[in-house]
């Protein structure tokens, strides 16, 4: 086990010493670099994928009584222990299989594994936040350990409660992405028609994407800044700012993809509306790629993450150039028609490239496969090759080859309309009020 320790600033150390004696390994990061496979149980195959879901980071047990027993009431310590133990057990049991795309079976409480684990995290977070309330030095007392998935280090431990908050938000977002994936897998209908994704599932998935993006946006803007710079630099790549931003942008990009599919199905939606949505989708995926392109994503899940973003970025460009070409073709000049042909040809090339990238993504471990085509790409897989061939033939019959533009026109730049939900960290649980605060103060001063 390779250990990397980061000391706190002298000011922080003086502040802490004035409250209580310095605990061992305070403010340190501990990473196991060698992947023995003991903790990272990865599935060989994850089934059908509509939404990229990173492997779940799994929390390891923590002894709150040993770390906090001298400073907190027994009630608070036992509550923290019970809430986190519930998460550890559920995540450890279901983590290796929860990203697989089978329908989640009902639990004894009538819910699903995804919903129950998410609810457990939501219950835990307000109690956990008591450790960081008003800058309390209790935040440094407990060493939290999580098993990574995308990082080279098998696990990462930090004696900082903000690391735990960050890990919880990341896991909450991951669970929502998994839920969205299940909703967006075509299901056979009772009438015997082709498998499809219902309108309700599409509508609900957009809400889920925005909620997941909200968790990730909160993690980047409000939680990461709470960690000392040394720890931020050495977070596992799963929690790197670039990865969190990319996942947020991916959620928004897939939300726009659903909106484009709805527009395609609507007789009222104009080509201009569809082009705008497709161009916005390109910007989301481009920004997602920009955020992770230089990060050391590895170990299966990381490489698969990078390939998914690359695939979806190219796929989005195919859609954007297709609709841009249709708009340009409405012009009455030879130049406009030439630009339209160039745009459609580029759309066709991107479409072909996206199919190759999709195959590479699915072949990357853990193995995956495409669900039956539906929505935006089902429509475009038929229209792009057909319309491109038709427009190229017609325009080249009318104009000389030399007059047809060989380079694609620039896509129009639209402001991004879809934003993450405004998520705020919950208030500290009432169990931390007056009587417990007094006990904490007396414990720290003794």
In a few lines, what is going on in this structure?
The chain is mainly alpha-helical. It has 13 helices and seven strands. It is 56% helix and 5% strand.
Q: How many domains make up the 3D coordinates?
A: 2
CA-CA gap between termini: 36 Å
Q: How many beta-strand segments?
A: 7
Give the SSE order as H and E letters.
EHEEEHHHEEHHHHHHHEHH
The DSSP helix count reads 13
> Into which percent range does the helicity of residues fall?
55-70%
Low-pLDDT residue intervals, each spanning 5 or more residues: 1-26, 33-38, 103-111, 400-404, 437-446
**What is the topology, as strand order, of the major beta sheet?**
1-2-6-5-4
Mean pLDDT: 83
Radius of gyration: 25 Å
SS-based class: mainly alpha
Largest sheet: 5 strands, antiparallel
Give the CA-based shape. elongated
Beta fraction of the residues? 5-15%
Notes on the structure:
By secondary structure, the chain is mainly alpha-helical. It folds into two domains: 262 residues, no CATH class; 161 residues, Alpha Horseshoe (Serine Threonine Protein Phosphatase 5, Tetratricopeptide repeat). Helices cover 56% and strands 5% of the residues. The strands form two sheets. Strands 1-2-6-5-4 form a five-stranded antiparallel beta sheet. A hairpin with a 7-residue loop joins β5 and β6. α4 packs antiparallel against α5, α8 runs antiparallel to α9 and α10 packs across α12. The radius of gyration is 25 Å and the shape is elongated. The protein starts with a strand and ends with a helix. The N terminus and C terminus are likely disordered. It comes from Lupinus albus (White lupine). Belongs to the BROX family. This is Putative BRO1 domain-containing protein.
